[in-house]
Design a protein that fits this description.
By secondary structure, this protein is α/β, with parallel strands linked by helices. The protein has a domain of 36 residues. Helix content is 44%, strand content 18%.
């Protein structure tokens, strides 16, 4: 696999650690971690990720505003955003695109196949 730069925005430390380990060790990717959407937006400008993985269930008060700012960045730089959620399995692919997401990773996810799932969703070759 090509070494991609993946920005993971996840407020739960244990899930961040699992995502980092499986995407780095099994996917061979470079992982940048953010514990909040606001922090993730700042990291986008510094790191220029190839994809953004975000869990939108966050305790941030201004989460919706930050998500819109993140979507603006995504559109401006053609960086896909994948939603990580336990509640998104009822959304269709078309609805996700309308909302500004390239796809969804359902929780619970399989750490062993996660990088492959992301590559397939984004059309990245192995």
């Amino acid at each position: 696999m090509v070494a991609r730069l993946v920005l993971v925005i996840e407020h739960e430390a244990c899930i961040r650690e699992v995502l980092e380990a499986c995407l780095r060790d099994l996917g061979g990717w470079i992982i940048v971690l953010a514990s909040s959407i606001k922090e993730g937006i700042n990291l986008c400008e510094q790191q220029r990720p190839d994809v953004i993985l975000i869990d939108t269930s966050t305790p941030e008060i201004d989460a919706l505003l930050f998500i819109e700012e993140l979507k603006f960045y995504s559109t401006k730089y053609f960086v896909p955003i994948l939603l990580i959620s336990s509640r998104a399995n009822w959304l269709s692919a078309e609805r996700l695109r309308q909302m500004g997401f390239a796809g969804v990773i359902n929780k619970p996810f399989n750490p062993l196949t996660l990088s492959q799932h992301i590559s397939q969703t984004l059309g990245w070759s192995a």
